[in-house]
Input
Amino acid sequence: MKLIEKTKDQIIFSAEIDESIANAIRRYVKQIPVIAIDELEISKNDSPLYDETVAHRVGLIPLKMDKSAEKGKLKLSVKKEGTVYSGEIKGHPEVVYKAIPITTLDKGQELEFTATVKLGKGAEHSKFSPGLMFYRNETEITLDKDFLEEVKKFVPDAEIKEKGNKITVIDNKKKEMTDVIEGLAIKRKKQAEVANGKDLVVTVESFGQLEPKDIFNESIDMLRKDLASVEKAVEKEA
Output
């Protein structure tokens, strides 16, 4: 495994993983339990949005995860002119991002509601999704050596291997560069040989409830539990 980039909300790495296994891990991101706003009791809504629209928007606001979050309650009571933001929702658990717009109010208008939270899974509703996982094949693009300086100019951080009168560019970075390099070859009416490498470039993005590495690890744990239950069921029937 090779780490390509790591930030607060995203991790990108390359690893030799079978594509079917990577796809199973990706799908099981939707099986990770996550806290989200489940019901909204709106007592005042003078905004231009219907109650159902306000409830839908509020339900998609990510909440911070902790052990006591499942029993939390949230409230919002605003009377002002301007935009109402997620940071104005008070209570426990806290919202992850404070600047998500909910609706707007004119002078003298009010928005007031009480929210209850629930532990759920992304397979049930997207508001329970902790993030996204996607991947692509590492690619090797082979060109004539006279493309070397041009490739360095357009993709300066590319990994390049030289052999004889050929160069091979390894597309294993955060940004996919295969199309750019193929475009250079097409422009000069030359041939570029493209082949998949042995590794996958995997990206895990968090919506803020969990760290990206925790999303990846918990997805694997959920997959293992289901596989273990299938194994037990097969052994029982055998």
